[in-house]
């Protein structure tokens, strides 16, 4: 039996989180949604996701800080970042640290579908 890949969505905006969750599920992937980077890091019960879609601008811990914490603890999976406030400096930093993409909000659903298919295989 093939394992269905799991995508973690980390975004403090409930509307974005809900729409991304619906989109990713409709593409055939499993989804776990988190309201913050801390909520994701505190989830010790769930297995590692196969991919993450995360916002950059979140209170308490930004997406790029989450990426650094994950990297420093040896946790490695593809991350697609999104932001409503694009910056070349942040883009360059997260991409240099291994991010797979840096998208402007609102993300295009076709782009998300292609990126996930590239990273996880089509569903």
Automatic annotation (TrEMBL):
It comes from Parvibaculum lavamentivorans (strain DS-1 / DSM 13023 / NCIMB 13966). One of its GO terms (biological process) is phosphorelay signal transduction system. It comes from the Bacteria. Keywords: Phosphoprotein. Pfam families: Response_reg (PF00072). This is Response regulator receiver protein. The modification 4-aspartylphosphate is found at residue 55. Residues 6-120 form the Response regulatory domain.
């Amino acid at each position: 039996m093939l394992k269905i890949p799991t995508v973690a969505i980390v975004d403090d905006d409930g509307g974005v989180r809900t729409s991304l969750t619906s989109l990713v599920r409709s593409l055939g992937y499993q989804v776990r949604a988190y309201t913050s980077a801390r909520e994701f890091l505190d989830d010790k019960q769930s297995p590692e996701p196969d991919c993450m879609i995360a916002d950059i601008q979140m209170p308490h811990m930004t997406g790029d800080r989450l990426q650094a914490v994950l990297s420093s603890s040896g946790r490695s999976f593809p991350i697609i970042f999104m932001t409503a406030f694009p910056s070349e400096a942040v883009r360059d930093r997260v991409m240099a640290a291994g991010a797979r993409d840096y998208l402007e909000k609102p993300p295009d659903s076709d782009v998300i579908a292609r990126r996930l298919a590239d990273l996880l295989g089509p569903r």
